[in-house]
Each structure stands twice: as structure tokens, then as C-alpha cells.
Amino acid sequence: MSPPAASFESPIAISNGNGLSVKKDLAVKPAVNGQAKTLAQMENQWESFTFAPIRESQVSRAMTRRYFADLDTYAESDIVIVGAGSCGLSTAYILGKKRPDLKIAIIEAGVAPGGGAWLGGQLFSAMVMRKPADTFLNDLGVPFEDEGDFVVVKHAALFTSTLLSRVLSFPNIKLFNATTVEDLITRPAPTAADPHAVRIAGVVTNWTLVSMHHDDQSCMDPNTINAPLVISTTGHDGPFGAFSVKRLVSMQQIEKLGGMRGLDMRTAEDAIVKGTREIVNGLIVGGMELSEVDGANRMGPTFGAMALSGVKAAEEALKIVDE
Ligand code: 48N
């Protein structure tokens, strides 16, 4: 399937009041009241300091035009990644590097992306990754201390913030945070084994704060994103976790969940990386969400499998996209 031509033009069609739509380029322009200053030139100049002029509506339009232009652009995406934890972000990083032609939307329920990767374990800050996940850290440019069979990043937030900044810098990737995937878009795809089989064709979304209040408000219908491929990395079962695999069970697309098993680092990490795959037509599952479907062990406070499951998920995705 050849990916559709990417269209990332920035001009926004807006009405000029008498029904005509004009195109307004959002390119950044130099400050109106003179040259941009360097920080050094600003030191000890606070007496005369003042910001360039602004009107509140300019701020509102700067945010809303871009957000709604993004919603329009990504309403048809090539790939949707559900969950911006360490696995989902690692997947996006690899795809962003390899395929600037693909439109990739990341849907993250939390206001803060990053999932469980802001701390190493029990609120300790250092993050452990077993080799060969150090190859991912080298590619990303995250420094670490080498302890032989494993490496240690001095603060998990250094890994996650670096990964997040690289992902957000790709022009073909858009993060919609504070947004929950509430359901999956499906299309009939009967097989000889299952006449009711479907293929996944996108996601159904809503603001997370709306999703949390469906039981105390009237019907607040969702939005949608069409995509021929969804990669779900929503973590193990928790407040938000394991969303897509639980939905596959309730849609009777898989029989039941294996359920995450006890902690066994050496078993868990290999199983998650090697098991990352397309679970049903159009849906790849990686990271700890996979432990719920496969009944894999948990690995506890070591994150190499999250990064490399992301690498594998990206590889599986490109096999499908390029079919
Ligand atoms: O960090 P998580 O939970 O998931 P992973 O698989 O990226 O990383 C797992 C890792 O943090 C561990 O659990 C470590 C290795 N410990 C293992 C162990 O044994 O305890 O990120 C999942 C992300 C979160 O940010 C959620 O907010 C988000 O997915 N999410 C969703 N986003 C949108 N829509 C949803 N329905 C949804 N559900 C979860």
C-alpha cells in the first residue's frame, strides 16, 4: 500500500468576514517592535524592559488555528499510536526517523505523556536498561553509565524527555495528549476461521476529562481518526491500561486475555520484545499491554524491553504499510 502524499502546509483557510476564505501563512515573523535581543543583551536592562505588544485574541487564534488544523490534517492518518509511554514513544521515534512521508498521530490519555518512564522504580530516579538496549540510548543520544550487562541513565526523566523532544520535533508526527482512545474503528474482514472477524481501521477519541465523566453527563459523543494501522502501547492493566486488548476481547476478536504474570526480569523482557506483533488485522500491540494478552511476566524496574519493543513495533508496522 503506497502511503498517501504527505500534506503539511501551514497556511490556514480563514474567513475575512464577508464569506471569502483567505489563506494566512502562520510562518513566524520577527518581533514588530525591533530586533530580537540576545539573552546577554537583556541582562541588567530590566528598567527599560517590556514585551512586544499582544492582544488576547491573538493568543487564542495562535493556539486554536493550529490545533484544529492538526485535527483536520490527522483525521486521516497513516498510523495511530495509542499511548505515549516509553514503548509508544520509542515506536514513534523509529517511525519518525525512517518514514518522514507517513502521517503519524499519537493519542495519549494523560496531560503529561511519558507513561511510567519518568522514574526508574519505587520513585527512584535512575533508570536501568539491560544490553543491548544501550544501542537505543546511543542512537537517541542519551548518556548512561555502563555497568557491564546493563546500563544506567542517571535520571529516567532524561531518557523520557529526550525521547519526547525528538518525537515532537518530527514534522509528520502529532501528539494529541489529554485525549483518550475510547474505542476502535472496525471494518468487516471475515476469514474462513471467523466470519465475524474485523480489521482495525482507526480510533475513536474524546478529551480524557470527558471520557472520565460519561457516567455523570449526558451523551458526549467522540471524535474519530481513520488509519489503516493502529499500534497500541497502553501499558499493563491499570486505570487506563491494556485498553485495546481488553476491547478486542469485548468485541470477541480475541477469546480472552492471558493476564500479566509475576515479576521475572529475564523471562519478561525477551518475551515482550520478541512477541511484539500484529494481534489482529490492522492492530499491533507492544510494551506492557502485550503482557496482558500473552500472559507474559512483568519485568519491574527495567526499561530496555520498552525501547526495543518500540523498535520491533515500528519494524512490524513498516512491513504492513509497505505491503
Ligand atoms: O508506560 P506505560 O504504562 O506503558 P509502556 O508499555 O510504554 O511501558 C511500560 C513500563 O512503563 C512499565 O510498566 C515498566 C517497564 N514496568 C513494568 C512492571 O513490571 O511494572 O504507558 C502507557 C501510556 C500511558 O501514558 C497511558 O496514559 C496511555 O498509555 N494510555 C492511553 N492513551 C490513550 N488512550 C487510552 N485508552 C489509553 N490507555 C492508556
TrEMBL record:
The modification 2,3-didehydroalanine (Cys) is found at residue 219. Involved in biosynthesis of the thiamine precursor thiazole. Catalyzes the conversion of NAD and glycine to adenosine diphosphate 5-(2-hydroxyethyl)-4-methylthiazole-2-carboxylic acid (ADT), an adenylated thiazole intermediate. The reaction includes an iron-dependent sulfide transfer from a conserved cysteine residue of the protein to a thiazole intermediate. The enzyme can only undergo a single turnover, which suggests it is a suicide enzyme. May have additional roles in adaptation to various stress conditions and in DNA damage tolerance. Belongs to the THI4 family. GO terms for cellular component: cytosol; nucleus. Its cofactor is Fe cation. Gene3D superfamilies: 6.10.250.2840, FAD/NAD(P)-binding domain (3.50.50.60). NCBIfam families: sulfide-dependent adenosine diphosphate thiazole synthase. Binds 1 Fe cation per subunit. It is found in: Cytoplasm; Nucleus. HAMAP family: THI4 (MF_03158). Homooctamer. This is Thiamine thiazole synthase. Keywords: Cytoplasm, Iron, Metal-binding, NAD, Nucleus, Thiamine biosynthesis, Transferase. It catalyses: [ADP-thiazole synthase]-L-cysteine + glycine + NAD(+) = [ADP-thiazole synthase]-dehydroalanine + ADP-5-ethyl-4-methylthiazole-2-carboxylate + nicotinamide + 3 H2O + 2 H(+). InterPro entries: FAD/NAD-bd_sf, Sti35, Thi4_fam. PANTHER family: THIAMINE THIAZOLE SYNTHASE. It comes from Lentithecium fluviatile CBS 122367.
